[in-house]
Amino acid sequence: MNLHTPYQLSNIALMLVLLLIVSSCSDEEQSDAYGQFEATETTISSEVSGKLVSYQVEEGDWLKANQRVGTVDTTRLALQRQELESQLESIRARVTNINAQVEVQRSELALARTNLNRVQAMHSDGAATDQQLDDAQAKVRTLEKSIDAQQTQKQSVRADIRATQNKIEQVNNQIQDALIVNPVAGTVLTSFAEPYEVVQQGQPLYRIANLDTLTLRVYVSGAQLPGIKLGQKVEVFVDKNAEENQSLDGKVRWIASEAEFTPQQIQTKEERVSQVYAVEVRVPNRDGILKIGMPGEVNFSGVLSIQDKN
């Protein structure tokens, strides 16, 4: 029967402690960079002023792109459009009246020209006086000038029609802007408004972000930079529990072209006085475990060695 002496037991205990320390150190050494998860956040604002007559946005909601989520009161705009449409009909009626007058004057001009031809023939035979010829010519010239003036007036009225149509189009655009349409798919992070609240143009209504994929922004030293490439697949670690990490797949999407001073979240004094390069890693959030502001770690070298072997 083999019995361990107290001395041997103490040696075994010491070895176990050393193994734990080494294991802990190796776990820490497997990460090459540290940072926090970010998401592209979009703030949706009201494009017009008025009462928020409908608003279906709550924090945590997942909204589709181009989904209608609210409406600002458009009563005033609708009345304004109705008034402009009435003005447009009145202006168009002026064109109709001008056309009718021009048709009458053209008929008169045709008769005046026929009469002028007759008077000219009679004047050649001595059967008409100079005054009669002058009167016939003056009548033709007067009618021609009147028709030209009517045509000029019609062009002015048509310009008024185009201007009024543009105003109506502007009001229609404002009415369309009163419909609050969510532009991007994502999860509502914060809502700043409530139904029936009076909002102003440009006032933020809610903030949304696509949480399907988050960005882990980390910082690396100049010595690490040559081993990092755009599109490179990397291993990302997040806390699974108090003692374990969970491994996720990531891909490098951006590398800073210039160095900057180490951000404040880097704790050691040696690292704080150095300059680093920012690197962004895209990480799919398949199970929704990633949150904005959550810490994360990246292993560049481990994946590089795996790729090298392949």
Summary keywords:
Elongation Factor Tu (Ef-tu), domain 3; four-stranded antiparallel beta sheet; disordered C terminus; 3 domains; OB fold (Dihydrolipoamide Acetyltransferase, E2P); elongated; disordered N terminus; alpha+beta; six-stranded antiparallel β-barrel; 310 residues
Quick check: average pLDDT? Answer: 84
Shape: elongated
Proportion of beta-strand residues: 25-35%
In whole angstroms, the N-to-C terminal distance is 51 Å
Cα gyration radius (Å): 41 Å
* Order of neighbouring strands in the sheet with most strands: 1-10-14-12-11-15
Number of helices: 5
Number of domains: 3
Helix and strand sequence: HEEEEEHHEEEEEEEEHEEH
The major sheet is characterized as: 6 strands, antiparallel, barrel
As residue ranges, the low-confidence spans are 1-28, 303-310
User: Which class do the helix and strand fractions yield?
Assistant: alpha+beta
Structure characterization notes:
The strands form three sheets. A six-stranded antiparallel beta barrel has the order 1-10-14-12-11-15. A four-stranded antiparallel beta sheet has the order 2-9-7-4, with no helix packed on it. It has a four-stranded antiparallel beta sheet with strand order 6-5-3-8. The chain has five helices and 15 strands. It is elongated and about 125 Å long. By secondary structure, it is α+β, with helices and mostly antiparallel strands. 44% of the residues lie in helices and 28% in strands.
Detail the topology: elements first, then pairings.
Blueprint: H1 6-29, E1 33-38, E2 41-45, E3 50-55, E4 62-63, E5 67-72, H2 75-125, H3 130-177, E6 179-182, E7 186-191, E8 198-199, E9 204-209, E10 213-220, E11 233-239, E12 245-255, E13 260-261, H4 269-272, E14 275-284, E15 295-299, H5 301-309
Antiparallel strand pairs: 1-10, 1-15, 2-9, 3-5, 3-8, 4-7, 5-6, 7-9, 10-14, 11-12, 11-15, 12-14, 13-14
